[in-house]
Amino acid sequence: MIDAHCHLQDLKQYLPPTQALAHAANVDVTHAVCCGEGEHDWQEIADLANQQNSLYPSFGLHPWFVMQRSSSWEKTLEKKLLQFPHAGVGEIGLDNQMPNIPMHIQKEVFCEQLNLAIAYKRPVSIHCRQAFGPLLDIIEKYTQGNLQGLIHAWSGSPQLIPRFERLGFYISFGGSITHPTHSRARQSAQAVSLNHLLIESDAPALPLYGTPQPLFSEPANVKHICQEIALLRNTSFEEIADATTRNCKKLFGLAGG
User: Fold this and answer.
1) Neighbour-count burial for 151-184, b at 16+ CB within 10 Å, e otherwise
2) Residue 213 — very low, low, confident or very high, per pLDDT cuts 50/70/90?
3) Which of 60, 97, 114, 201 has the smallest number of CB atoms closer than 10 Å to its CB?
4) Contact between residue 33 and residue 58 where contact means Cβ atoms under 8 Å apart
5) Is 183:177 a contact under the CB 8 Å cutoff?
6) 169-173 and 197-199: which strand pairing?
């Protein structure tokens, strides 16, 4: 299995990255895509990627941090993409629940990163909260540029999924689907086509459901998420593990994809 989206640089407050990756390997989560959030963590992700063969880097400016960007942020991001020929662009996106961050600025930064992704033929990892309409409008304009990517920690309605699939996007699910009360996420996990399905930990966010509530998520959690999706879809664990691994390898251009 592959963790399609995590933040090991943030997980370190709970668990060292090497230990987290060892936990993952013990349950057959062999690789993880580690996503950046801004200039403050891109170099740390680069260092982790150079140290850990099981980690694939992704560099992006998260909508929460767009107001903290420097005048040279785009050049710095481009340098990181050139340094890592297989790196993705992410975590990027739109968030309509951040009233202090103007949406027009989020859109501007988002589109600039989409342009980089297309120019360097890199997949994007997209964050979206309460902004699926504007997100679809933007992505549809970029389809001519062969844009590919995933919507991470899906929080939209199941009815929106076919529109993203038609645009070539993958839909990724994390620990929220293990919460019995998160009915929309659980319905969405059933609605996604098998060849557009991904699984993620979003470590350290989105911990698994449990009592007491876990403090954090880690890449090893992907096994439990895979099991939950198999139950929801009334299929085998192996089918979900094989499909999501194949999908992730294809999206990120990894060996065996």
Assistant:
1) bbbbbbebebbeebbeeebbbbbbbbbbbeebee
2) confident
3) 97
4) yes
5) no
6) parallel
